[in-house]
């Protein structure tokens, strides 16, 4: 396929671009700057100079081009802010970015659209020991600061599934780890604060595994469906910090909540396990790295 990829230079975008090209696909990648365009070329893709949040500029840049599919992987994985609001950069990318890219898909004649979602949309609370599936309620708000994230995920998936001109699939990823993420095993990368005692349990996925699942979904994902993309073994935040090696920043739970309330909801309140059985069954995907220990050793 010929694919327009938004987010090609991000933590998942880089391995995804390489995986798409390995799979025989041609990649057009949005690039806002000269530096991004150079990075896209180095990955083997063709840059398209445009900003996904600039609707008119995006459509001008795509004029005369065609593609079979659009993949939305734009993220805002910066250091977490003290507070979250409805106009948080991540939510803007999920709302306006999705709307603009859906319009771009129509202009390109693309019949497929994949979007990045998150398993955290199942809710920032204790789900117990059972494994959550795609049949469970999604978009469960709890009345806290994390509701802004859940609203953004719901809006992105809702826009996609209600679009009549594309076959849309949502990929609900676990928490990313690996190069370019909060949990980057590269020597010298910055430490991420984690709670003393390890914190809550969440699903994880190595960015390379996430990329391979996305390539599989491009040809096998069903329209109107969501897929959980996570490894086999959920684990608490402290385990990832320890497996990463090097410097660790451990904080008491009360301090974490005070400094960044969202991290309190994410790292302390959330206990979530998800099943990737549907992705394995329908996409033919299983994680290369069954848990973070294998993934961190891979570097």
Describe the structure.
The mean pLDDT is 92. This protein is globular. Helix 3 packs parallel to helix 4. The relative contact order is 0.15. 39% of the residues lie in helices and 18% in strands. The protein has 299 residues and is of the alpha/beta class. It has 11 helices and 13 strands. Helix 4 links the parallel strand 4 and strand 5. Strands 3-2-1-4-5-6-11 form a 7-stranded parallel beta sheet, sandwiched between helices. The protein has a two-stranded parallel sheet with strand order 7-10. Strands 8-13 form a two-stranded parallel ribbon.
How would you summarize this macromolecular structure in one to three sentences?
Helices cover 39% and strands 18% of the residues. The protein is an alpha/beta fold and 299 residues long.
Layout of strands and helices, then pairs:
Elements: E1 2-6, H1 13-22, E2 26-31, H2 34-43, E3 46-49, H3 55-62, E4 69-72, H4 89-108, E5 112-118, H5 147-162, E6 167-173, E7 175-177, E8 193-195, E9 201-202, E10 204-206, H6 207-220, E11 225-229, E12 235-236, H7 237-244, E13 249-251, H8 253-259, H9 261-269, H10 277-283, H11 292-298
Parallel strand pairs: 1-2, 1-4, 2-3, 4-5, 5-6, 6-11, 7-10, 8-13
Antiparallel strand pairs: 9-12
Distance between the termini: 30 Å
Low-confidence segments, given as residue ranges, are none
- Helix content bin: 25-40%
Mean pLDDT: 92
Q: Please write the string of helix (H) and strand (E) elements.
A: EHEHEHEHEHEEEEEHEEHEHHHH
Whole-angstrom Rg: 18 Å
Number of strands: 13
Largest sheet: 7 strands, parallel
**Overall form:** globular
Widest sheet: strand ordering: 3-2-1-4-5-6-11
Q: What's the number of helices? A: 11
């Amino acid at each position: 396929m010929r694919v327009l990829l938004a987010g090609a230079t991000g933590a998942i975008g880089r391995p995804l671009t390489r995986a798409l090209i390995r799979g025989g696909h041609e990649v057009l990648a949005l690039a806002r700057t000269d530096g991004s365009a150079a990075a896209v070329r180095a990955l083997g893709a063709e840059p398209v100079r445009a900003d996904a949040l600039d609707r008119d500029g995006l459509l001008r840049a795509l004029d005369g081009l065609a593609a079979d599919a659009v993949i939305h992987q734009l993220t805002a994985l910066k250091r977490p802010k003290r507070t979250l609001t409805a106009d948080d950069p991540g939510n803007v990318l999920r709302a306006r970015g999705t709307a603009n890219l859906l319009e771009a898909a129509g202009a390109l004649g693309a019949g497929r659209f994949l979007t990045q979602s998150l398993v955290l949309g199942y809710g920032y609370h204790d789900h117990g020991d059972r494994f959550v599936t795609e049949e469970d309620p999604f978009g469960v708000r709890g009345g806290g600061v994390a509701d802004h994230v859940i609203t953004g995920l719901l809006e992105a998936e809702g826009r996609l599934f209600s679009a009549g001109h594309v076959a849309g699939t949502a990929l609900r990823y676990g928490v990313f780890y690996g190069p370019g993420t909060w949990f980057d095993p590269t020597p010298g990368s910055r430490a991420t604060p984690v709670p003393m005692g390890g914190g809550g349990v969440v699903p994880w996925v190595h960015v390379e595994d996430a990329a391979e699942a996305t390539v599989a979904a491009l040809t096998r994902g069903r329209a109107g469906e969501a897929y959980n993309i996570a490894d086999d073994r959920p684990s608490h935040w402290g385990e990832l910090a320890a497996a990463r090696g090097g410097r660790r920043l451990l904080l008491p739970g009360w301090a974490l909540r005070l400094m960044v309330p969202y991290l309190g909801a994410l790292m302390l309140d959330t206990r979530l396990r998800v099943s990737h059985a549907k992705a394995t069954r329908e996409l033919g995907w299983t994680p290369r790295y069954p848990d973070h220990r294998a993934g961190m050793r891979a570097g």
